[in-house]
Design a protein that fits this description.
single chain; about 350 residues; alpha+beta; Aminopeptidase; Elongation Factor Tu (Ef-tu), domain 3; 2 domains; eleven-stranded mixed β-sheet; six-stranded antiparallel beta barrel; about 25% strand; globular
């Protein structure tokens, strides 16, 4: 299982500031952690970092990808009364926002605020029954005028994120916090490369572990990383929607927290390479790692861009089932995380040039 050093890094990673387009501090944290374990570190021009683990051959190039941007907000205006309006960075469901704390980052430092709206006490009964839309919400930082806000350094274009400390529940078996989508994927790929280095695990390929940016606003980092790496095969590490929540039908979300990592068999951005998919299923059985099959009809991942690189790149998505994604507080199983790490390492040990070429041979 994960040791204390890895758990401390997980905590720091999840709590770091980094909404889409503003990932610099979280990418810097990843770079500092990975320097001892990487043979090379490559940066693209929009902020993604790739950590290289050289194996016995240059090809195949195995790309591991996990995005480090989190869903957040960007300040759109400051009212005369001293409130901040905002636009979403990534997908938000308005019902999870009211009454939640946020951190606004300015050039002078971070400022705490709370998302609020018109109080229900003064609303007509019919209006109380309606869902409050995001456009009718604001961030309150305790100011009483536009001038007070401007004195703090807040300006239009400043980013904000959920305020949500990382915690462990259930005797350390479950993690709770923000940004699991998708820093848990980034964490997994970094832990994989770390263990390959520390345990001197041989692999017949070169591994490129990419912590990508701006996934939540259009899979943008995945596109630039594909140009940088030129991968032969890709494994995207992601969250999955855990279906063990009241009201969810099995056909809506098949994976359950604590029952093993998931393998996405279909989403709106990519249908995985069938041979690669079956290869992952077979390897999981061989090494006795529980694997759940899932679909995400309403979502997509970095694999949506990566699998279209040049003439095509076989790709698949391995997931950690996570409750309450795209909210201030998510929950996931550390056992599922560990099994996703183990499975990824076992796949890397087997992905030689012959096997990878068979994924696309006729």
């Amino acid at each position: 299982m994960l040791n204390s050093e890895s758990l401390q890094f997980m905590k720091e990673l999840m709590e770091e500031f980094g909404p889409s387009g503003f990932e610099r501090s979280v990418s810097t944290l990843c770079k500092k952690f990975m320097e001892p374990y990487s043979d090379r570190i490559i940066a693209d021009r929009i902020g993604s970092l790739t950590f290289v683990s050289a194996g016995s051959t240059d090809r195949p190039r195995v790309l591991l990808a996990g995005h480090v941007d989190e869903v957040g907000f960007i300040i759109s205006s400051i009212t005369e009364e001293g409130y901040l309006t905002f636009n979403p960075l990534g997908g938000w469901w308005s019902q999870v926002l009211l009454g939640q704390r946020v951190t606004v980052r300015t050039r002078r430092g971070d400022i705490l605020g709370v998302i609020a709206a018109k109080p229900p006490h003064i609303l007509p009964e019919e209006e109380r029954k309606k869902v409050v839309e995001l456009k009718d919400m604001y961030i309150d930082i305790g100011a009483t005028s536009k001038e007070e806000v401007e004195a703090t350094g807040v300006k239009i274009g400043d980013p904000a994120i959920p305020w949500s400390p990382f915690s462990l529940l259930q005797d350390g078996k479950v993690a709770m916090g923000k940004a699991f989508d998708d820093r848990i994927g980034a964490f997994i790929l970094m832990e994989v490369i770390k263990r390959i280095k520390e345990q001197e695990i041989p692999h017949p390929n070169t591994v490129y572990g990419a912590v990508t940016v701006q996934e939540e606003v259009g899979l943008r980092g995945a596109q630039t990383v594909s140009h940088v790496v030129d991968p032969d095969v890709a494994l995207v590490l992601e969250v999955d929607i855990a279906g063990d929540v009241p009201g969810i039908k099995p056909q809506e979300a098949a994976t359950r927290m604590g029952k093993g990592p998931g393998l996405v068999t279909f989403d709106r951005s990519m249908i995985p390479n069938p041979s690669l998919k079956e290869f992952i299923i077979d390897v999981a059985k061989q090494v006795q790692i529980p694997l759940q099959l899932s679909q995400m009809y309403g979502g997509g991942t970095d694999a949506g861009r990566i699998h279209l690189h040049k003439s095509g790149c076989p790709a698949a998505v391995i997931t950690v089932p996570t409750r309450h994604i795209h909210s201030h507080v998510g929950l996931l199983s550390l056992r599922d995380t560990e099994n996703a790490i183990r499975l990824t390492i076992e796949l890397i040990k087997r992905l030689d040039l012959k096997i990878v070429e068979e994924f696309t041979s006729f």
